[in-house]
């Protein structure tokens, strides 16, 4: 398993991979990197670095990278739904639950969203409360707001746009 760091406007990103695909993108150093078998190496992440730099520069709206997030079948469904949310748009937890054919599973969608191991690239920041208000983001609402601002989506959210 490999890892590297990438500087971004929302802070340092820790990117992990298996040599073939990305397995994680974190905004805080994951404890797993301290376990045996992890190798710090920039080489496996050249394409990820290039695409993330372009995204943060406002030059890329979609990522084209091999991904291998580890999760349950339901989490995988939620993460696929997240990848289908277009740049600059948001969806509610309820809308994703309904899209998955499980209209009463908003909380389960929220839990899966919160366990997304490949943030930014699998855009969990594009999920908001049913009223459009920013809610729960593992990396902090300030970062969520910054990512939505970058994409031009934050300006379409109702006020107050951030709740504690």
From TrEMBL:
The keyword DNA repair applies. It is an enzyme of class 2 (transferase). It catalyses: a 4-O-methyl-thymidine in DNA + L-cysteinyl-[protein] = a thymidine in DNA + S-methyl-L-cysteinyl-[protein]; a 6-O-methyl-2'-deoxyguanosine in DNA + L-cysteinyl-[protein] = S-methyl-L-cysteinyl-[protein] + a 2'-deoxyguanosine in DNA. Keywords: Cytoplasm, DNA damage, DNA repair, Methyltransferase, Transferase. It is found in: Cytoplasm. Its main location: cytoplasm. Its EC number is 2.1.1.63. Residues 73-153 form the Methylated-DNA-[protein]-cysteine S-methyltransferase DNA binding domain. Coiled coil: none annotated. One of its GO terms (cellular component) is cytoplasm. The keyword Methyltransferase applies. The active site is at residue 124. GO terms for molecular function: methylated-DNA-[protein]-cysteine S-methyltransferase activity. GO terms for biological process: DNA alkylation repair; methylation. Residues 1-68 form the Methylguanine DNA methyltransferase ribonuclease-like domain. Involved in the cellular defense against the biological effects of O6-methylguanine (O6-MeG) and O4-methylthymine (O4-MeT) in DNA. Repairs the methylated nucleobase in DNA by stoichiometrically transferring the methyl group to a cysteine residue in the enzyme. This is a suicide reaction: the enzyme is irreversibly inactivated. Belongs to the MGMT family. HAMAP family: OGT. This enzyme catalyzes only one turnover and therefore is not strictly catalytic. According to one definition, an enzyme is a biocatalyst that acts repeatedly and over many reaction cycles. This is Methylated-DNA--protein-cysteine methyltransferase. It comes from Jiangella rhizosphaerae.
